[in-house]
Amino acid sequence: MTEVNRPPRVGGWTRLVTARPRLSLLAALVLTVLAVLAGSGVADRLGSGGWEDPDAQSTYATKALEREFPGSQPNLLLLIDTGAASVDDPAVAAEANRLTARLAREKGVTGVGSYWQSKAPALRAEDGHEALIAARITGDEKAMGDTLDRIAPSYRGTRGPLTVKVGGIVAVRHEMQTIIREDLTRAEMIALPITLVLLVMVFGSAVAALLPLGIGIVAILGTNAVLRGLSEFTDVSVFAMNLTTALGLGLAIDYALFVVRRYREELSTGAEPPTAVATTLRTAGRTVLFSALTVAVSLAAMLVFPQYFLRSFAYAGIAVVLLAAAAALILLPAALVLLGHRVDSLDLRRLLRRGRTPRSPGEEGTAWARTANLVMRRAPFFALATTAVLVLLGLPFLGVKFGTADDRQLPTTAESHAVQQHIRDDFPGNPGGGLEILAEGAATQPQYAAYKARIAALPEVAGVDGPLVRGDSAYFTVLPKGEAVDDAAQRLVGDLRSLDAPFDTKVTGTAAVLVDSKHAIAQRLPWAAVFIAVVTLLLVFLLTGSVLIPVQAVLLNALSLTAMFGAVVWVFQDGHLSGLLGFTSPGSIETTLPVLMFCVAFGLSMDYGVFLLSRIKEEYDHTGDHREAVRHGLQRTGGLITAAAVILAVVMVAIGTSRVTNTKMLGLGIALAVLMDAMVVRSLLVPAIMRLTGRATWWAPAPLRRFHQRFGLSEGESAEAAGSLPDRDKVGVPG
């Protein structure tokens, strides 16, 4: 096919970066410095909760009890170890009462009580050598953390005959926040040098390798500034910073790899740097834009959920994706114009190539071409075998059990984890695992007594305390017979909520929060799935003009995640490899984690899918040969996608070295999903399926073809050049 030899049309942003590259880079430098200033101290502004539904019955009851009955919702526990003495020893009791009175005088602390005041059996260990002082620290998460930092050193340690350890929800969350911040710094120190080495191995040139890393750093710093701004208006989870680092490095490197690789290809054909940049932006640039949109869509789906833990990842993810794409499409081309052919400077692989004949661009990727040919020759086998393996790896997820995040997210060496574990193991009645019932409305003592009797008659109830009455409000504490959040405790929540009472009742507690969280997710999950599917189908159609390819993309991307979900249950729920990976399995998966992991991993899978499909589409537009287009697309992008996946997996594994179990699960799970998608789905399943569907892959009804001709975008030449392509009907495409 003969093409018209004309200068490429240069769009608005191409003119900007080619005509004034220094101005573009200077503006980026100024904005980056401002982002550093704006984002400083962002971790201190973020929360460590956000798993509950803010509109749920349990949330309302919790806030009401905090306001009306502070002692009913203790978030600070002092574990008192008396050594060989009994907790009832007079000297022990005297010192414990002094500590209790002193804690009650602390600013920002209310609802202080202890075993020595109430003699409640639930506050005394079964061996008689440990007991609890309970209190509530008031304020928002930052105020509670500041109060804890101020008072904890005065109580922790040896106090006369007592040894004191600090625990409770506020201590767990504060310690989690501190550990996440430390682990994130360590992850960055691990990921950055390894990533740089891998980039040098991919590009050879140290100059080319530094470009993607710089784009990633700009995206991370910009997103930190966005999160800092958002924290002034809404709650943002500290866990979102992990996603910022992972996607900031991973996607920026993906996009930069794709742009730099295409730029170097254009240079190798003899194009001058400005022309090579223009062609790169018109081809690879469009693909990067589509990729960013598909990833952002997947992450935006988390905005439909009410939990700020999930919404925070949407804020961080959308910001970092758009910033990474903007940097790759504006800053990187400007740098390439200035560097010109020097992008290949400092080639660190010259010694390895000495004495060898350099390979031409057409010779690159021959192994991937052979792989494509093999897969397409045995397409039914590879399609069935790959699908069967992925489904098999996902089977453990059928046994998933959902739970809540608690102190077991922390390492066993964490003080607050040790305190909570002591309470679970050594104290009766599962303190901290009870359910609270808020009763609102005027009632008489006989009515309260009758209601309490009905609660006690429920089969899953081990005991009932209360009521404690204040005005027209009262509360009861209900202890379930089993674990705090097991199936029986969740059924008990439903039983309590359906129990007749002469006043309004609302149930809260760990199991109630879990029930409400599961309900909120189940209610909104179909909407999130439909949103992701519909927008993804539309975007991939705009890229390819095909009806079948978008459907294939959605289904194969979902299939690529099965190994991740199976591994999450097998490892983190069932506890396999817990010793090797250094975590404590709670026997369940936190309810929001699968949603988060699906949205992130699906978006990253689409990222790689767009890279592959865009190159296949470009070749098909040039030749009209379906099989050659698939082979050429895999040849040109197979190595690039694999390199990008390995680099992103390194970043995610670095995140997965965290001592917090949820972060470990997120990092390692997504690393596995990325590798499976790049090395199995993109390399084997996609070419096999496309070979089976043949030229029908590109079919679309006439109205949709016209829609795509008007609005569609693809990696390839301009519309004028496309007009010289062979007619689809002449190459056997239906429709």
Explain the overall architecture:
With 735 residues, the protein is an alpha+beta fold. 64% of the residues lie in helices and 9% in strands. The chain is built from 27 helices and 11 strands. The chain has helices at 12-19, 21-39, 42-45, 57-68, 90-104, 115-118, 141-155, 169-203, 206-230, 240-268, 273-300, 308-339, 350-353, 366-377, 379-394, 415-426, 445-456, 487-498, 510-544, 548-560, 562-573, 578-581, 593-623, 626-656, 661-693, 702-711, 719-722, and strands spanning 76-81, 109-114, 130-137, 157-159, 162-167, 402-403, 435-440, 461-470, 473-480, 504-509, 589-590. It has a 5-stranded antiparallel beta sheet, with helices on both faces. Strands 8-9-7-10 form a 4-stranded antiparallel beta sheet, with helices on both faces. Strands 6-11 form a two-stranded parallel sheet. Strand 4 and strand 5 (162-167) form a beta hairpin. Helix 11 (273-300) packs antiparallel against helix 12, helix 14 packs across helix 24 (626-656) and helix 23 (593-623) packs parallel to helix 25 (661-693). It is elongated, with a radius of gyration of 30 Å. The two termini are 23 Å apart.
Structure described in brief:
By secondary structure, this protein is α+β, with helices and mostly antiparallel strands. The protein is built from 27 helices and eleven strands. Helix content is 64%, strand content 9%.
Low-confidence stretches: 1-10, 715-735
Q: Which whole number gives the mean pLDDT?
A: 84
The outline comes out as elongated
The amount of beta strand, in percent, is 5-15%
Please tally the β strands and state the result: 11
- Strand order, main sheet: write it out: 2-3-1-5-4
Q: Sketch the major β-sheet.
A: 5 strands, antiparallel
Secondary structure category: alpha+beta
N- to C-terminal distance:
23 Å
How many helical stretches? Answer: 27
